Each structure stands twice: as C-alpha cells, then as structure tokens.
Protein: Two component transcriptional regulator, LytTR family
Organism: Epilithonimonas mollis
Amino acid sequence: MIRTIIIEDEKPAVRRLEKLLGLFSDLEVVASLNSVEEAVGWFQENEHPQLIFSDIVLGDGLSFDIFDKVSTKAFIIYTTAFDQYTLKAFKLNSIDYLLKPIEEEDLAKAIEKFKSFLPEEGTVNSQEIRQIVRKEKSTLSRILVKIGYNLKVVSINEVSCFYSENKIVYLQTKERNYPTDFTLDELENVLDETKFFRVNRQFIISSDYIKNIHTSPNYKVDLDFQPNEEITVSRERVKDFKDWLIKS
C-alpha cells in the first residue's frame, strides 16, 4: 500500500479528493491535514508517507512553508486553483500539478506517473523524477500577489513588465506595481516567450504594451505602463530582441 496524506483546508475539496483516491485500491490515506501548523506538527510526530496531495494556499500560509520547516522524502502532487507556483512546486519533491476542480482522468494520470517511478521495493527514484520534471515547462496565466494581509490575482495579460529593484522583482500593471516571489531568471522559464522578452538584467517586457522603440543611440523601449526608469535593450540582446518583435 502507498501511504498517502492530504493537505487541504477546504472540507468539500478534502471529501472529493478522498472519494477520488478511494478508487485506487493500492492507496491508503493515513491523514488529512488542514493547515501549515497542523502539517508541521504531524510530520514531526509521524512516519512520513510516500505521497502527498497538497493544496498550496492554506488558511495560515503556503504549503511550501511546511517543507521549509520539515524535511521529507515524500513526493508531492499539488492541487490548487492558482497556477503561478508551478516552478516553485517542481523545485520541491513535486511530480505533478493539478488545477482545481480536479478531474478524475487527470488525477489518474498523475498517480500513474508517480507509480511509474516506483521500483519494486517501493522507494522513489527521486533523481530520475527530477530530471524529467525539469523538462516540463508550464506557462503562467495568473499571479497571486500580496497586498498587506490580502491576496490579489493578477492576470498575466495585465502585466506590462517585470523588473528588479533592491533585490525584489515587481510586476507592473496599469494601476500600480506589485512585489512578487519570483526572480527574473525564474520568470524567464515560466512566461510565454512569444509575449515576454528579457531585454536586460533588470527588465522583462510584454509585447502587448510596447508604445515606442527608439533605435539611436541605443535601443530603448517605452511601455504604456512602466516604472520611472528607462528600459534599454542590452547590446548583446538587440538581435534577439528584433527577432522576437517579428515573431511576437
């Protein structure tokens, strides 16, 4: 039997997932946990499972906070309504990422994917899994940002640029800027490359919001909405930038 736990703070979602997992005779759900605090305590006092189904946004924080506090060799299938965390999820022991509402067919595929990496003795070939998930690339469509104690979902279509300032990466919209949890290097891997381009070490811009392009003495881009700073295309990126403009 594959020992499994659920980390989820919405009771209807727990009941649905338990029902779906009940269709798999070789899975045993040994615990359902509903907060970061409860999960940390459970991991500290119990034998760790082989597989975890975890929501990301919990009432008292993100489930990533759990694994910052406890170390586990269990692998994780994330279940969430937000798709912005794909990259960070795959940096942990994640083998798949399911968007809510979870469909039975998608769940079955995720479980079969996990089982395909289980040798006969039931241990996980973590190195092979990491090699494969690194090749899987997901594209952001929404970003969850914090405003004080509140959360706001920003559509990627509203973002004119991402930029780094004082070691924090911000996204810019028509209304204002918002701090994010990403680095620019991470964003390059999860943004639609036909729409977004890294013009220099500080800026990633969206083709949807380019207002004007100056070519002399340097390539400089004006966006409809941008911080109070010039956006210059670095010399080594000019050729790629022009190619990107044609394709975008």
Observations:
- The chain is about 30% helix and 30% strand.
- The two ends are 50 Å apart (CA to CA).
- Confidence is low (pLDDT under 50) at residues 121-137.
